[in-house]
Amino acid sequence: MKRKISLLLLMIFIVFMNTANCFAESSPPQTGSAFPEIELPKPANPVDLNYLGLSGSGIFKVQQIKADVVIIEIFSMYCPYCQGEAPNINNLYTLIENNPAIKNKIKIVGIGINNSFFETDIFKKKYKVAFPLIPDGDFKLHKVIGEVRTPYFIVVKLKGGKKEVIYSKLGALGDNKAFLEQIIKLSELK
User: Fold this and answer.
1) CB within 8 A of 100, min separation 6: which ones?
2) What is the DSSP code string of 115-136?
3) What is the CA radius of gyration of the chain?
4) What's the whole-model pTM score?
5) Share of the chain residues as helix, strand and coil, in percent rounded to the nearest 5
6) What DSSP state is assigned to residue 151?
7) Does domain 29-187 have CATH number 3.40.30.10?
8) Where do the domains of the chain lie?
9) Is the peptide bond before 151 cis (omega within 30 degrees of 0)?
10) In 3D, which of 161, 175, 158, 178 has the Cα closest to residue 72?
11) What is the per-residue pLDDT across 22-69, written as a single tens digit (0 to 9) for each?
């Protein structure tokens, strides 16, 4: 009887460890890790393409954005927290664009989880979002980054050919000036 219980416990342990490994492989990007090479559809809007330093149509990777740092907002147009955070992110965009020292060094891009181009365009118009919003209608990116809840923010340092995650956090950013100072310090822009 003891042997059967021991064998059962061993089997439960093995199943638990395999399950834990599956979850560990799909955890959100951690600070200090490399951002995964994910292909995203290029925005159709020429203003958005120009902002990202891209041209043409097709796909792109985050590391192709012409910036030293990219702030990625993982959102959904159906998420009430994302809707509430939209004015704050718009303000962050304005702070960056009005500061000549960082204007072309830091870019923001939103990735709409389970959203189509149509849905990201509705969100962009409704909340007057000036930065590009890219759809992830098939959950490809969402699965790779650990199926995070929204809004989720990932900041990637691209300077020097790197693609290092320097910030990864669920929820609202809080004070934009403090967040921006933190990102400038972490990315060593100054």
Assistant:
1) none
2) --HHHHHHHHHHTT--S-EEEE
3) 19
4) 0.85
5) 45, 20, 35
6) S
7) yes
8) 29-187
9) yes
10) 158
11) 333 468 889 999 999 889 999 999 999 999 999 999 999 999 999 999
